[in-house]
Structure formats: structure tokens, C-alpha cells
Amino acid sequence: xxxxxxxxxxxxxxxxxxxxxxxxxxxxxxxxxxxxxxxxxxxxxxxxxxxxxxxxxxxxxxxxxxxxxxxxxxxxxxxxxxxxxxxxxxxxxxxxxxxxxxxxxxxxxxxxxxxxxxxxxxxxxxxxxxxxxxxxxxxxxxxxxxxxxxxxxxxxxxxxxxxxxxxxxxxxxxxxxxxxxxxxxxxxxxxxx
Length: 193
Known about the structure:
Number of helices: 7
Radius of gyration: 18 Å
Shape: globular
Order of helices and strands: HHEEHEHEHHEH
Helix content: 40-55%
Distance between the termini: 18 Å
Structural class: mainly alpha
């Protein structure tokens, strides 16, 4: 339910950053989260957990934790949620994913896409036009009015901005995912409402 909105919470709720774009600069100041995980279950957790009683948490804080680590944990929470949903898709399909194509405002964050590729173990591809929902609506209108002659014509003009290849050690990936799932477990069934 919450992905990019977690960055908005950091900006608007905590007033920790001036703009969503500022988070990338802040997170580049640290190598990792220092063991901090943020589960953005502000309105429960969606797929694959489907728990409306889950609540958000920040766990793993130490005296060395600062805003950069919390900001990075916020960004990384998006990648962890993508991995959870991708796992559900793979389980339903019965076949692995070859790559992941992303779009939207968060897709402009290189660190997020690099981390997502690392966690998934597959390439993540960002198109040149990151607002593909709007592009899709415009494309359908263009097809309906005859501006474009076919879907093949549209496919031919699709352009990739960047492809992020996974580079993380599998053992590190497994450790991070274990930590994420431990954090998620603690957030589940928190609210009695």
C-alpha cells in the first residue's frame, strides 16, 4: 500500500527532507542503513501479507543511527516491498522473472534501482519516460486517432534510459532479506482496531 509514499512521509510528516529528490543526496552519505529497517505499514501491509492491522516500525536503531541511515532504510523499504511482490508473482507464475521494468517518480532514484536489482538478483530497467501511465494513456489516444498506426510502431519508439545489473553477493542478499522479514514479522497484527 505504501512505497513512494514512505518518502513523502519522511518529507511531509517528519520534515526530514525538503523534497523527495533530496533523499538521494542524503542517502549517498552512508554506505548502508547500519542494520536499520523501516517497515512502512502506515495503513497496514498489502501484498503478499494482506494485514490491515500491521503498523509501521523502525527497528535496529543504535546511537550511531542518524537521519541518513533512516532515510536510506526508507528508500530500501521500497525495494524490499518490490521483492516481496515479485516473489508472489514468481510463485504464481511458476517461473522466474528475467528482468524488471520500472516507472514512476521513485524510478528516478538510481540507488533505489541498484538496490532493487541487487535484492532481486535480476536486471532492473528504467525507461527514458518514467511516467509510463501517462505515456500509455497518450499512446492509446494516439492509436485511436490514427497518430500511430500500430502497437509495433509504439514498441519501436520505446527507449531505455538505464539498466541496473545486480552486483550484490548472494550471502549479503540473503542476510538483508532475513532482516527485512524479521522486521515485517514484528509489524504484523500490531493494531487491534
